[in-house]
């Protein structure tokens, strides 16, 4: 990463995103200065998904992940609290945990042996007496690993480095009503199946995020041949009059009310039967409308970078690695109470569709990488991109929450994504984080 990039000001940023006409400047996908500002004003400020509670179920359980490009450790301590702190030693900055997952009582740095607790506090260091004798005011209490604020919502753990950020409830807002379709359709809640997949793509992080927020339009074209190969039938056009895009605070969800549309793509009749058998129970818990969304043809993105396909049970984050790269983390999310045999079918289905070797993910990755690369051409850069589908599709709905748009073939969620992006990118306040 170069250090001589000039930070774009608010007027320059506003010129990149024309929400009235539905036009986006290609610069948002390749520019180093825009990217660096995203790290500061989006990834260092937003509430970011860091783990599912089931991944750190026991005291001492930990995993490593990223908040923006900052490496962090997520660890459950002896009191049951989940802590998130930088995976970088306060002495010389060395990486504290080289392991990506495990169970520990404490973390010892490989370089000089400073040792930190499960809450990030510095608890021991070699020759501490020398420090006390020669280092005026030395206090190990000041040298803990830099901590983030941490709050969970129904099993999902979120963290932010911004001390001034509004609470997670405000951040999620009415999107919680939709998240509950995924997280609260069963009284026992959800879990991630063990293991995750980490892979790389040479694309800007916003392409997958905005795709999952509401690009149903690509599916019948991009994924048609994949669906033919896997299922013996194409994707087909979805019923547009019975489908919606909703957005809240830049979070998007597009869905039909077919109940098992996406789940069918996994190619496992037992999963379809499971969803149909549960429909009444789910309706009693969440109401008829939301019971129709559980396995439906739908996709979602929680701003900025946590995406999921409810019907296919794939759950992922797109970690930025420069303007033209991401590290993609993928899990399988299931109801805890689902039979074990069904959980393995979900795992198999996700691997077949949305893993690095999954047919549908390969379709998408190709498009996102090519879009990222071509947008950086010297002449190509000057041409705006078209985001105007469904400019007049907003409706009032008696039950659905948030901003509601009729028809999934729509760019309204992408425009909402960039509205939130612009708002945060133009927020010039100094960063407020714990010291
Ligand atoms: S860098 Fe960690 S103990 Fe020195
Ligand atoms: Fe796709």
Can you offer a commentary on this structure?
The chain is built from 14 helices and 23 strands. The chain is an alpha+beta fold and 435 residues long. The strands form five sheets. Strands 13, 14, 15, 16, 17, 18, 19, 20, 22 and 23 form a ten-stranded antiparallel sheet that branches. A hairpin with a 5-residue loop joins strand 5 and strand 6. It is globular. The chain starts with 9 loop residues before the first helix and ends in a 10-residue tail after the last helix. FE2/S2 (inorganic) cluster binds next to loops.
**Helix percent band:** 25-40%
Q: Note the main sheet.
A: 10 strands, antiparallel
Multimer state: single chain
Measured between the Cα atoms of the first and last residue, the distance is: 25 Å
Approximately how much beta-strand content do the residues carry? 15-25%
Can you list the ligands bound to this structure? Answer: FE2/S2 (inorganic) cluster, fe (ii) ion
Radius of gyration (Å): 22 Å
Low-confidence segments: none
Number of strands: 23
Overall body shape: globular
Q: Please tally the helical runs, counting DSSP H or I stretches of 4 or more residues.
A: 14
Estimate the mean pLDDT confidence: 94
Helix-strand category: alpha+beta
């Amino acid at each position: 990463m170069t250090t001589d990039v000039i930070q774009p000001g608010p007027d320059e940023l506003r010129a990149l995103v024309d929400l009235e006409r539905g036009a986006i400047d290609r610069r948002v996908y390749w520019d180093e200065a825009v990217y660096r500002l995203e790290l500061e004003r989006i990834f260092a400020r937003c509430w970011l998904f860091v783990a599912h509670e089931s991944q750190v179920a026991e005291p001492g359980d930990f995993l490593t992940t990223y908040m923006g490009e900052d490496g962090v450790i997520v660890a459950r301590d002896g009191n049951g609290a989940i802590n998130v702190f930088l995976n970088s030693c306060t002495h010389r900055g060395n990486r504290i945990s080289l392991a990506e997952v495990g169970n520990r009582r404490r973390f010892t740095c490989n370089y000089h042996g400073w040792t930190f607790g499960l809450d990030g506090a510095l608890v021991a260091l070699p020759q501490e007496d020398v420090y006390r004798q020669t280092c005026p005011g030395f206090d190990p209490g000041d040298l803990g690993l830099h901590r983030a604020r941490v709050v969970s919502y129904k099993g999902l753990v979120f963290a932010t480095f911004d001390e001034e950020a509004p609470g997670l409830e405000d951040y999620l807002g009415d999107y919680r009503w939709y998240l509950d379709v995924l997280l609260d359709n069963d009284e026992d809640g959800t879990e991630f199946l063990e293991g995750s997949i980490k892979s790389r793509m040479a694309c800007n992080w916003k392409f997958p995020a905005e795709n999952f927020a509401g690009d149903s339009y690509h599916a019948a074209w991009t994924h048609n041949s994949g669906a033919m190969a896997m299922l013996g039938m194409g994707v087909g056009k979805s019923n547009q009059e019975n489908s919606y895009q909703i957005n809240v605070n830049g979070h998007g969800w597009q869905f039909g009310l077919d109940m098992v549309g996406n789940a069918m793509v996994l190619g496992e009749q037992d999963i379809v039967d499971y969803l149909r058998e549960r429909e009444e129970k789910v309706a009693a818990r969440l109401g008829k409308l939301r019971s129709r969304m559980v396995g439906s043809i739908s996709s979602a993105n929680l701003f900025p970078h946590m995406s999921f396909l409810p019907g296919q049970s794939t759950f992922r984050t797109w970690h930025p690695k420069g303007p033209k790269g991401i590290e993609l983390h993928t899990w399988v999310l299931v109801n805890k109470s689902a039979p074990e045999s069904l959980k393995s079918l979900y795992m198999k289905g996700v691997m077949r569709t949305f893993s690095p070797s999954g047919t549908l993910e390969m379709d998408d990755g190709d498009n996102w990488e090519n879009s990222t690369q071509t947008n950086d051409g010297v002449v190509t850069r000057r041409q705006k991109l078209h985001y105007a589908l469904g400019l007049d599709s907003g409706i009032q709905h008696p039950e659905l929450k948030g901003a509601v748009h009729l028809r999934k073939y729509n760019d309204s969620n992408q425009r909402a994504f960039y509205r939130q992006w612009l708002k945060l990118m133009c927020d010039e306040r100094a960063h407020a984080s714990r010291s």
